[in-house]
TrEMBL record:
Coiled coil (residue ranges): none
InterPro entries noted in UniProt: NAD(P)-bd_dom_sf, SDR_fam
Protein name listed in UniProt: NAD(P)-dependent dehydrogenase (Short-subunit alcohol dehydrogenase family)
GO molecular function terms noted in the UniProt entry: oxidoreductase activity
Pfam family, one: adh_short_C2
């Protein structure tokens, strides 16, 4: 039985470590797109080798159709066709509508949204030609919910969400499933989305009913499920992975520890 291959668009990101570990241990071969030198990946390659997985490090410009095509031609020669594309590019910068300059806006939109389009187009064509494949977008609850601190990030994630819907409709006709994960708070989100006009991330941990923040492993486990045959009927879905964060509505009802009490996570 041929091995399956997954392409991880941003192996350097916070989500990359969890995705690599889960798919590597799950018996998948991996194509990891990175800006780091190949020698920085020696430990990861060894880890995957022990798990029985092959790893190829690539350095493609995700906003270049030509670069992606060249990379994919070379990767397929070494590992075979790509079964799953995971687009997990997620650049966050503080930007507001009034003062955001063009450079920051364009950088965020290119990194998050333009790269998603070119990856979907390039990989989607090859998946459609053989009638199978899966595309998984790692997005954010802020594809609809404003951050109050980075409107360009929210705009880019909104674009990715609609791209996912359009791709699911079109590529689904060729047997390709396209789904989107709306990631909620992780450790450090209060810093990433620090705002002068929104209190959304004030005491954000306690706005989650369980008070437990999401992790890269939570994301990786869901992505692994979406990549597998068990999710064969899921297409065009937006799956919110936020522990119930967006259900919060009354700060004085937060599940905070009592004064003097400590709580382990």
């Amino acid at each position: 039985m041929p091995r399956k291959v997954v392409f991880i668009a941003d192996a350097d990101s916070w989500s990359g470590e969890g995705l690599i570990a889960r798919f590597g241990q799950g018996g998948w071969d991996l194509i990891l797109n990175s800006t780091q030198d190949d020698n920085e990946w020696e430990d990861v390659i060894l880890f995957c080798k022990v798990a029985g997985a092959k790893v190829l490090i690539t350095h493609a410009d995700l906003c270049s159709s030509r670069d992606l095509t060249t990379m994919l031609d070379q990767a397929e020669e070494q590992l075979g066709t790509v079964d799953v594309l995971i687009h997990n590019c997620c650049l966050i910068k503080p930007t507001d509508v009034e003062h955001c300059d063009e450079t920051d806006f364009v950088e965020i939109m290119q990194r998050n949204a333009k790269s998603a389009f070119f990856c979907t187009q390039t990989f989607g064509r090859r998946m459609a030609a053989r009638g199978s494949g899966s595309v998984i977008f790692v997005s954010s609850v802020h594809n609809e919910k404003p951050t109050g601190s980075s409107f360009a990030y929210s705009a880019s994630q909104g674009a990715v969400k609609m791209l996912a819907h359009e791709a699911a409709l079109f590529l689904g006709r060729s047997g390709i499933r396209v789904n989107l994960i709306e990631m909620g708070p992780i450790e450090g989100s209060d810093v990433s989305f620090q705002s002068d006009i929104s209190g959304l991330y004030n005491d954000y941990r306690y706005k989650i009913p369980s008070t437990k923040l999401g992790t890269a492993n939570d994301l990786a486990n869901l992505a692994f499920f979406l990549a597998g045959e068990e999710s064969g009927y899921l297409n065009g879905s937006d799956i919110r992975l936020d522990g119930g964060f967006l259900l919060h509505y009354m700060d004085h009802r937060m599940n905070k520890p009592a004064e003097g009490e400590t709580r382990t996570q």
